[in-house]
Amino acid sequence: MDLGLDGRAALVAASTSGIGLAIARTLAAEGADVSICGRDRARLARAHAEVDACGKGRVLATPVDLRDEDAAAAWVGRTAEEFGALHVVVTNSGGVPFGPVQDFAVAQYREAINDNLLPHVSLALAAAPHLAAAGWGRIVLITSESVRRPHPGSGLSSVARLGVLGFAQGLVHAFGASGVTVNVLAPGFHRTPILDRQYGRRVEERLAEVARGIPLGRIGRAEDLGALVCFLASDQAAFVTGSVLVADGGNSGGIG
Q: φ and ψ at 122, to 5 degrees?
């Protein structure tokens, strides 16, 4: 199936590893020009090489701290200038520490909002005029399954990421008439470096335990999310907007 992404200009935030890198690789494989960013220059260079090897499109790699709204907006502007347009924007951010709500101080909630909510806001607001100018745009905001079913063990994530849903709905109404769709992708457990760091030497044992509780019986692959983003960014998804797509192997236990 031709997704219509060949020659499109895409921007993927927090894309030097894990989910962000997998999304950037998949978009590149579909023929898109891809702009990636990260704070660590060495990891950014490695990610650039990986993404560049996936497709024929151009790859732009920029050091950016997404917590700096001016730097984030400048990255968006540079991407649009270098590629001549901007069509697909994938907002993404790093993870937050696990733990119940009572384990964190107010300052940590403030930090989580700054790290996990506001980057979505600054990137989408900076990108929306470019998408509207192109007359065709896709915004995909990456959160987590906690936006559908807040988990008692993910207090910071449940609080910070829920704000993305309200922001997304505002974008739907503000820019829909310009041909811009806005959707939220909410992944569950996927094998990424953050899980390796979290579980340490017991990672395989712990992931096997998690997998036993998931109806599909396995942990997701980051590439699975890359495929979903490509669909949401495609011509075929032109009438899909304002949705929250949960990709958790059935772990949230609900329909709708």
A: -65, -40
Closest CA to 153 of 114, 87, 104: 104
In this structure, is residue 247 part of a structural domain?
Answer: no
- DSSP-H helix ranges across the chain: 18-29, 41-52, 69-83, 106-116, 118-134, 155-175, 193-199, 203-212, 222-232
Q: What is the CATH number of the domain that holds 18?
A: 3.40.50.720
Q: Please report which residue ranges of 201-248 form alpha helices under DSSP H.
A: 203-212, 222-232
Q: What is the pLDDT of residues 177-215, one digit of tens each?
A: 999 999 999 998 877 777 677 777 887 888 788 889 889
Which residues lie closer than 8 Å to 121 by C-beta, 6 or more apart? 167
Host domain of residue 171: 9-236
pTM equals 0.94
Pairing of strands 33-38, 9-12: parallel
Q: Could you give the number of structural domains in the chain?
A: 1
Q: Could you tell me which residues come within 8 angstroms of residue 46 by beta carbon, excluding any fewer than 6 positions away?
A: 16
In this structure, is residue 74 part of a structural domain? yes
pLDDT score at 202: 86
Hey, CA dihedral for 243, 246, 247, 249, is it positive or negative?
negative
Angle ∠(20,163,190) on CA atoms, nearest 5: 35
Contact 33/59 with Cβ under 8 angstroms?
Answer: yes
Asked whether residue 245 is assigned to any structural domain, the reply reads no
250 in a domain, yes or no?
no
